[in-house]
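the two lines:
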Amino acid sequence: MATAHSRAAARVMISPAVILLLGWMIIPLSMTVYFSFLSYNLLMPGMEEFIGFGNYEYFLTDPAFMEALINTLLLVGGVLAITIVGGVGLALLLDQPMWGQGIVRVLVIAPFFVMPTVSALVWKNMFMNPVNGLFAHMAKALGLPPFDFLAHAPLMSIIVIVAWQWLPFATLILLTALQSLDKEQLEAAEMDGASALDRFRFIVLPHMSRAITVVILIQTIFLLSVFAEILVTTNGGPGYASTNITYLVYAQSLLQFDVGGGSAGGIVAVILANIVAIFLMRMIGKNLEA
Amino acid sequence: MARRATGARKIVVTAIAWGVGLAIFFPILWTILTSFKTEAEAIASPPSFLAFEWTLENYVEVNSRSDYFLHFMNSVIISLGSTLLGLLIAIPAAWSMAFVPAKRTKDILMWMLSTKMLPPVGVLVPIYLMFRDFGLLDTRIGLIVVLTLINLPIIVWMLFTYFKEIPGEILEAARMDGASLWDEVVHVLTPMAVPGIASTLLLNIILAWNEAFWTLNLTAAKAAPLTAFIASYSSPEGLFYAKLSAASTLAIAPILILGWFSQKQLVRGLTFGAVK
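prediction for all of em together
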């Protein structure tokens, strides 16, 4: 159908996007790779020298790296656990007949539209603050001592904040998947005497498994890069208690001006993200053929 | 079967769902309420929910004290600018991939997607240094360029999934009737593509408005959009809950409203068409 002429036109139409993305990907990334082999500090310009894998050795053996890696995994895993379990529950709930379904849906989805700095600061000050926060007021009303969430459980607090932001995303996607389930199948199973739990386990959950996988993979990509929430609540502290890889690289390169070390950390982050990305790409690629 | 139980069941479900929905929405509601309190009332214990002196003074103060309008305009210009620029680049690309698919179209799409998987810290240092050397730090144009590039894969993908749903036969029919390429594009395809383009525009404005990695790292005072401006409240001076709430409410209100219109597109855009 397509003529040689339209093929040439198609190539012209597609090239700006391809060239720009290619440039965006290759130029900075190869610079990061290059920097990562240099001893390069912005405070000492002109002193750059090639040091091979020295930065990687430094970054990977830094105790902060192990801590940040574990924090990253806890953050991603914690938020995924909350949002998947909560999202499945909410999707099942919102799929039931009720009054005002549209409004409830809007209420549940709203946190996703709140910018990260706002949600982090609202939670930090108005809820988790040990003196004036709402949780402190509640503890006082119950006769309990107030708890300084961000000082004593910083990572946990950040997990709660980030989970609150991502729960709507999981809910929305799982709900969309649930709504495409053939309801007659469920009714037939009910007639055959399948309990609600059985119907959930053998019909609903398998039907949603694909959507759950997509949610896990996409959220993981974003959650590996959580940054603003940490910056405005704890600055990664106390110590490195709430520093993830993203924040560690930021601190290394833009706070300590260690371009070489920061670049090595950046490459480590890229490798970690790629492991997840490969799985995600496979899922989406399959869908493209269908 | 299930239908018989509806009456009582529906009431219970409604009650639970509203309870859960309000609990999830509560932090936003609380922020909006606090924005109308005085600073003293904002930290009063026990806190009052509605029975306080409603005041607009925080909004007045936030606007007069902190160049709020400048940052708001930065957000508008950056999110709108990056979205329009992105559409300009993405529409022809998505169009040709949807209507003149070549052997490598799928590979190109997958590759574009893979650029989105690149964690921003992987390129933070070089981008920061390039921005510094080209004088782009703390400029709107610099951020527009970066946000265009990071969101371009999503824009292309979303448009592609919409364009693909336009039946190709209509084009053939138009061609048979002697329509030129120009006629085809302007009179046949464009009207059918407008809803998809509008959805993409909406979602991308939301994403750009809330982007908080590059905006925090590449701006200071002049070009800072609201994400970065709000972050300045992380080092408080004196009583500031009510003012923080007012600034936050103003920052999220436009996007909350846009968001209500884009629930469906959100699923599609953010899952790259994997869930529709």
